[in-house]
Amino acid sequence: MPLTIYTGGAKGVDTHVERLSPVWSFVCGHHPTPRAKSLAPLTQPDLDAAMPFVTRAAFQLGRHLSHPITLQYLQRNYHVIKPASLVLALGYFDELRKHVLGGTGWSVAMAQLLLKPLYVFDLDMEQWHWWNPTLQQYQPCDGMTYDQISLPTLQDNTAILGTREEDKAVYPTLDALFQRS
């Protein structure tokens, strides 16, 4: 049975996921035509519905909302995460390992606000981390037993998001994720 995978249709992680599996991509009006098999164009009411979560993520991250096009991408990312039963992100942590950097960090913050099960692949350490909502911190998956938490596996309604950079660990990590599931 094919899985439902959600992305934002951007280059990097999203593009590679689209090569591995049919996905649902959520797009804004200005977004170039993505390679996804299924598209969900977002309307202005869709974008407006995302604003409370984008605003709360900005507060959580200590960041400001700036450019209108950037704002639309953040609103789109809310809709990538909202239907997901699992969120997988590939990116870089800050020095204190409290937040994920860049645009991926906004999506991760919204996943936390929506109380989604969340894994982040740290591209610096090349290691999966699990967001522990009780402790409000990331915990490495390596060395943990199945009674605790294990490496992520794809499930139906998984959102996959991450860096637009062509990091050397991105493609093998995504390939292994799809092979494991």
What does this structure look like?
The structure is a single chain. The chain has 181 residues and is α/β, with parallel strands linked by helices. The chain contains 5 helices and 8 strands. Strand 1, helix 1 and strand 2 form a beta-alpha-beta unit. The chain starts with a strand and ends with a helix.
Write a concise keyword list for the protein shown above.
8-stranded mixed sheet; 8 strands; globular
Question: What does the secondary structure layout of this molecule look like, with pairings?
Answer:
Blueprint: E1 5-7, H1 13-20, E2 23-27, E3 38-41, H2 44-61, H3 68-81, E4 86-91, H4 102-113, E5 118-122, E6 127-132, E7 137-140, E8 158-162, H5 170-180
Parallel strand pairs: 1-2, 1-8, 2-3, 4-5, 4-8
Antiparallel strand pairs: 5-6, 6-7
Proportion of strand residues: 15-25%
The SSE order reads EHEEHHEHEEEEH
Strand numbers in spatial order across the main sheet = 3-2-1-8-4-5-6-7
Q: Determine the fraction of residues in helical runs and give it as a percent range.
A: 25-40%
Describe the sheet with the most strands: 8 strands, mixed
Shape: globular
